[in-house]
Design a protein that fits this description.
Blueprint (H helix, E strand, L loop, with lengths): L2 H20 E4 L3 E7 L2 E7 L2 E4 L5 E7 L3 E4 L3 E4 L5 E12 L2 H8 L3 H20 L4 H7 L1 H19 L2 E12 L2 H73 L1 H16 L17 H4 L5
Antiparallel strand pairs: 1-4, 2-3, 2-5, 6-8, 7-8, 8-9
Helix pairs in contact: 3-5, 6-7
């Protein structure tokens, strides 16, 4: 190969290499800045195909999507000076690429450390204004909104990132605090259970007394009706007996004597000593009872 041909090939390869380094692409989910000898010359590159001066200019790309920061659990104090372990996370994204690069030198880990420090500081300040009940349930949503709003304003100004949301995953009490709290909770629940049982016993006693009263009233009414019916029956029976006796007194006396014989001689061990001429045997001695 001649010297001229070799020089031409070298120049062609150099042109291809320089052209490849002069072209770059920014994806739609990326944010980027252009640097010229380390100084920012374009702080917000739009997605698409771009050109730059090789060697002199450099492009730094960053993830423009919403990212998650899982902060480490920290110990905070409430307004009651009660300690608790709080585990939180945050959603964030880059909105000002130039400010983000200037503040962090393009290092995502540094941005995460700064954001985590601010989250812990915000949680510490908000927890110090509230008691345990408000932190756990009463004002937890309001607490998260306040932290997100203040943190977002600060981080936009200082780091060029937007704090989308801050949430608490879990709140635990330290062992030296949780044991007395759980003991008090158990005592309160035991007291409520005893009160409920006592109310149940009172209501049961009242219901039993009311049922007994109703039973006595029903039995009394039933006994009253039974006695009235029995009295009416006895009156009707007496009336029938009286009519029958008046119609044939002799026959009635005979029937009564038969009943007396039946009851007297019902058992074999019965012994009766009477004069055979007594009135008891008048129908045995004479069919007409004379």
């Amino acid at each position: 190969m001649s010297t001229r041909a070799f020089t031409g090939l070298f120049l062609l390869m150099l042109a291809v290499l320089v052209g490849a380094n002069a072209v770059y692409v920014v994806n739609e989910f990326e944010r980027g800045v252009k640097l010229k000898f380390g100084r920012v010359v374009d702080d917000d590159l739009t997605p698409g195909l771009h050109f730059k001066w090789p060697i002199a200019e450099e492009v730094r790309r960053f993830d423009g999507r919403i990212l998650t920061l899982d902060a480490s659990a920290e110990r905070f104090l409430t307004v009651e000076k009660k300690s608790m372990i709080v585990d939180s996370f945050a959603k964030w994204r880059i909105v000002d690429v130039g400010k983000y690069y200037t503040a962090t030198s393009g290092e995502e880990m540094r941005a995460r450390l700064l954001l985590e420090q601010r989250i812990n500081e915000g949680l510490r300040n908000q927890f110090a204004k509230r008691n345990l009940h408000e932190v756990v349930s009463g004002e937890r949503d309001q607490l998260m909104e306040d932290i997100t709003r203040h943190l977002d304003a600060f981080m936009r100004q200082s780091l060029g990132i937007e704090v989308v949301d801050v949430r608490v995953k879990k709140i635990d009490l330290p062992e030296e605090v949780s044991d007395p709290v759980y003991a008090r909770m158990r005592a309160e629940r035991r007291e409520e259970a005893n009160e409920a049982r006592e109310r149940g016993r009172k209501e049961a006693t009242f219901l039993r007394a009311e049922a007994d009263r109703q039973r006595v009233i029903i039995e009394a009414e039933a006994y009253k009706q039974a006695e009235l019916l029995r009295g009416e029956g006895d009156a009707q029976a007496a009336n029938i007996y009286a009519k029958a006796h008046n119609r044939d007194p002799e026959f009635y006396a005979f029937v009564r004597s038969l009943d007396a014989y039946k009851k007297t001689f019902a058992g074999r061990e019965d012994i009766l000593l009477l004069d055979p001429k007594s009135d008891f045997f008048k129908y045995l001695n004479n069919s007409k009872g004379r």
